[in-house]
Every structure is written in structure tokens, then in C-alpha cells.
């Protein structure tokens, strides 16, 4: 199953939120709805849930985080030198 990603930077926001949520579709959608309500002041509604569902993206392979022993390790970034 492909993991889904919700990135607040993709949505217009006065707060310039940078939160990214990744996981299975249902988990991400539930967390995104809760975040939209608690942080951005939206109201719970079917329309909010559908809007957020439409913003879900498949997680790209180069953004995969390796998790070992409960510690997240980001992939090495290429040197800019």
C-alpha cells in the first residue's frame, strides 16, 4: 500500500504552516482534519474532509524516512559544494 502525504505548505494559509503528515490514507486524513480544526480554525464538515482528501498525495520514494528502533533517520542530502 502506498503511503499518503498531506503537506500544509501546499494549501494557502495566513500562518504559513509547514506541517507534513504521512501514513496510511485514513490516518493522514483524520490527522489533517484534526489539524485543520485545531490550528487553522476550520469547522468539522464533510466538505472539509473532501477538500483535504483531494489534497492527499502519494509519498514519493525519495522522501521515504527510514525508521529503525523508533528513531527516524532522514535520507542523506547531496552535498551542495
> What's the domain count?
1
The low-pLDDT segments are: none
What portion of the residues fall into strands of 2 or more residues?
A: 15-25%
In terms of structural class, how would the helical and strand content be classed?
alpha+beta
Treating each run of at least 4 consecutive H or I residues as one helix, how many helices?
2
Order of helices and strands: EEHHEEE
Major sheet characteristics: 3 strands, antiparallel
Radius of gyration: 14 Å
**Terminal-residue CA separation:** 37 Å
Got a strand count? 5
Q: Quick check: average pLDDT?
A: 82
| Residue share in helix | 25-40%
**What is the general shape?**
globular
As laid out across the biggest beta sheet, the strand order is 2-1-3
Which tags fit this structure?
about 80 residues; alpha+beta; two-stranded antiparallel sheet; about 30% helix
General description of the model:
The chain has one domain. It has two helices and five strands. It has helices at residues 25-38, 46-55; strands at 4-7, 20-23, 57-58, 66-68, 71-73. A hairpin with a 2-residue loop joins strand 4 and strand 5. The chain is globular and about 30 Å long. The model has no long low-confidence stretch (mean pLDDT 82).
Amino acid at each position: 500500500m502506498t503511503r499518503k502525504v498531506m503537506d500544509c505548505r501546499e494549501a494557502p494559509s495566513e500562518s504559513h504552516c509547514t506541517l507534513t503528515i504521512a501514513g496510511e490514507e485514513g490516518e493522514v486524513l483524520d490527522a489533517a482534519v484534526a489539524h485543520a480544526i485545531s490550528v487553522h480554525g476550520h469547522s468539522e464538515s464533510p466538505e472539509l474532509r473532501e477538500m483535504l482528501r483531494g489534497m492527499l498525495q502519494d509519498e514519493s520514494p525519495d522522501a521515504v524516512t527510514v525508521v529503525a528502533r523508533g528513531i527516524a533517520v532522514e535520507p542523506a542530502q547531496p552535498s551542495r559544494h
